[in-house]
Amino acid sequence: MIEITDNARDQLLEIMERESKKGHGLKVAVKGGGCSGLSYSMDLSEEPEAGDKVIENNGIRVFMDLGSSLYLSGTVLDFSDGLNGAGFTFNNPNATRTCGCGQSFSA
Fold first, then answer.
1. Angle at 102 between CA 26 and CA 104, to 5 degrees
2. pLDDT tens track for 61-94
3. How many domains does the structure of the chain reveal?
4. What is the pTM of this model?
């Protein structure tokens, strides 16, 4: 499904702690929009929504709807705070094209 790197896990746990959302899961979705046609969405959620697939990877519960899970299969979620700025990045093998910011893609 989706793999969460150690860097992404550590950052997510830090955000959960800071926002008093310890134990929440990560809701990941793919929505229409963005400069390449589809964009990623992430949010912390206490529980999955009805129909969400629930997986656990690297100590993080991940919730995603069935449609999004098709686009996200094999995706690696990472966190980088390099010279180009800090943020989560999606390495999605299903993307045929991405935009410069990495938050939008087409499949």
1. 80
2. 999 999 999 889 999 999 988 766 778 988 888 8
3. 1
4. 0.83
